[in-house]
Amino acid sequence: MGFDFVSEVAARPPLVLGVDPRPAWHPGPDPLAHLEGYATRLMEALAADLAAVKFQYAFFEALGGSGWALLERLVATARVLGLPVVHDAKRGDIGTTAAAYARATLERWPGSALTVNPYLGGDALEPFFAAAARGGGAVFVLVKTSNPGSADFQDLDAGGRPLYLRVAERVAAWAEAWPAEPWSRVGAVVGGTHPEALEALRPVLPASLFLVPGLGAQGASPLPGAGLLWSASRSLFYPDGRPDLEAARRQAAAYLRDLAG
Fold this sequence. Notes:
GO terms for molecular function: orotidine-5'-phosphate decarboxylase activity. By secondary structure, the chain is of the alpha/beta class. The protein contains eleven helices and eight strands. Helix 5 (95-107) links the parallel strand 3 and strand 4 (113-116). Helix 5 packs parallel to helix 6 (122-135).
């Protein structure tokens, strides 16, 4: 099968670099060229310290065709560096549309992972699970997100338990159906801004990797734990609010010290 996302990230440090590009923060007459050069150097500098690189699709989509081209080049660069890739696109649709989304991400980039939305139910996610299994990839299902408004729906009472725990029970069944080593191909997105949810969800999802956003700008505190992939975007890609390679190195080292306990 070649490169396998699950086994690769399990053997690496638990820190994920989130790439949310802001061209306006890059100097010079060609901000995208500066951005690409900075992102490449940063991935090279941090490669040994990262579990994966997470590309937030919205920031690339906002740039139109040039953004899509930049995304493809940076994903290719990450793979050349041996870095696992997470496509943070939060896809979720039915039938042939879901299959097309899977082809555009998990099949186009075998050995990568994709974030998905479970709101449309299990049949909408099956094409993503199948594509991940064929290509040695993974799927992270939104369970408890890092934003304050997640409580609007995710914390609703569902038979005496919050809805996010009911979602987690379904994710656990999918994780059992799509095994890999040493974790399932079906993981969960659990915001680090909700440490109580992290604690409550681990026994419900014993086979799943957790993608944990929220470090830095959202205020989450890094906590050590098996199968937790902590993602930092603005605080690591743009430390101090600007592109700064040395500051990013220092920030990564600080996060890894905290995650080592």
